[in-house]
Amino acid sequence: MPSHPSSRVQKAREELAGRLREIRKDAGISGRELAVRCGWSESKSSRIENAKTPPSDADIKEWCRACAADDQAPDLIAANRQSADAHVQWRRLQRSGLRRVQESTGDLYQQTKIFRVYVSDVIPGFLQTPGYAAALLSSIADFRGTPDDVSDAVAARMRRNEVLSNGARRFSFVLEESVLRYRLCSAETMAAQLGHLLGVMDLQNVAVGLIPFSAQRAVWPMPTFTIFDDTKVHADTLDAAATLTQPSQVELYTRAFERLAQGAVRGAAARSLIADAVASLT
């Protein structure tokens, strides 16, 4: 099978193949012995190790069993699935405009019961007002040169965010204080956005924590990420939306979220930071 046309996917496949090869070597067996234990041809082992043929979930389980490394199978299976769909190129999604980007996560939002969101750059999409969202998405569309469908994208984001009012779902937000200060819109729009944030803090299923500039930190500020239940993480970069599903990756981001949350203030102290940010707009 030829290399995958996406360099990201091919690289992920090669990394997975390398991990499987190391597992075999650590077990001290040859490719021929592995094939015998797995009940398939030696050429199949070679194709998998050289990233010529992507293994199935069953292949990975059998490989790990043959190498007495069953505990590594869950991470490897998740990595195998990610190699095909974890990195969604923004340029592909945005080819038809930003509305498609908003709608692409709709099913995931409906399926998730517990959301944990850390942001260090902008007000989280869940908490944005239409005015703030319009200013932000307009900036994104201009930067990326995508079709101008900002109005439709904002409407799609607002529909997607209706999950926030579903009391059966729980949301925990941790925001850097800088998020309250960045000027991505007019002072009037930002004041309305900060007022909306104060209102959201009254919802019973929503917890908002703010990390003050002056806080003694246990961990450094990190790129924005969202954890969906205990199964998936979205971590955006400038060119891709990375969906991480390996148990070890989810555990890592969960630990990061917990450490960041330790430095956040809540309640009256958080409201005071927002009030100060509002006052600075005048």
TrEMBL record:
Highest rank taxon of the organism: Bacteria
HTH cro/C1-type domain sequence ranges: 19-74
Molecular function in Gene Ontology: DNA binding
Gene3D superfamilies reported in the protein's UniProt record: lambda repressor-like DNA-binding domains
Name of protein: XRE family transcriptional regulator
